[in-house]
Amino acid sequence: MKLEKITNSSVPRSARRYDDACGAAHALDLIGERWALLVIREMMFGPRRFGELRASLPGISANVLSQKLEALEASGVVQRLRLPPPASVQVYDLTDWGREIRPVFGMLGMWAARSPLHDPTLPLSAISMMMSFQTMFRPERAAGVAVTVGFRFGEDRFTARVIDGALQIERGEAGSAEVTVTGAPPALAGLVYGGQSLAALETAGALSVEGDREALVRFAGLFALPPKVNEAGSAAA
């Protein structure tokens, strides 16, 4: 499916600059403003419509989202595209260069997850859940494991495959999945990271499972959060 790129050379750049030659400072010039990184996050698995971005970021207004997309487009991080017929709708996607920031999200997420102030009960988007899998995956636990799991979060569909000690995640539904999970990302996080039992989540109506439930339990055991630090910033005992 070939997408048509939409250009807009009149988009103004942000006037805020650190006036510092350090590459990290320039990175903050480009993506350091409030909401910018989270908007980028929501396009990590491919193009999204404006409404999809807004739904995944409930705390952002339509006006602010428009401003962030325009600024990111002006910086060369985001591009606007038009889906071919019959859809013919405008979507937003990361440029090739914009997508290179993916490893930064993993390192930042792993680092921040060690904070004792991190609250895992806050809202979590489907993209965030899938990216957490990529970050918290433990290859040493996946020896001899081969499993394909489908996820349905509202209209969002994802497929995760574990094979040869590696994890692959893509948008879309796979008919070959051994098990498919339907529910909300926070409930899935409770299963994978919070020690909640699958049976309890099913009884509460937070998750529903079709297929091999044991395959889902094996999959959930392939991930682990990093150890917390104490208030002084040292590794917790």
Cα end-to-end separation: 52 Å
The helix count comes to 10
* Rg result: 19 Å
Mean pLDDT: 91
Beta-strand share of residues: 15-25%
Query: Strand tally, please?
Result: 8
> What is the string of helix and strand elements?
EHHHHEEHHHEEEEHHEH
Structural class: alpha+beta
Description of the molecule:
The chain has 237 residues and is of the alpha+beta class. 35% of the residues lie in helices and 19% in strands. The chain contains ten helices and eight strands. Helix 6 packs across helix 7. It starts with a strand and ends in a 17-residue tail after the last helix.
Brief synopsis:
The chain has about 240 residues and is an alpha+beta fold.
List its traits.
three-stranded antiparallel beta sheet, 8 strands, 35% helix, alpha+beta, five-stranded mixed beta sheet, 19% strand, single chain, 237 residues
Question: Helices and strands in order, then pairings?
Answer:
Elements: E1 4-6, H1 23-31, H2 36-41, H3 50-56, H4 62-74, E2 78-82, E3 90-94, H5 96-99, H6 102-112, H7 126-136, E4 147-153, E5 156-163, E6 166-171, E7 179-183, H8 185-192, H9 198-203, E8 207-211, H10 213-220
Parallel strand pairs: 4-7
Antiparallel strand pairs: 1-2, 2-3, 4-5, 5-6, 7-8
Helix pairs in contact: 6-7
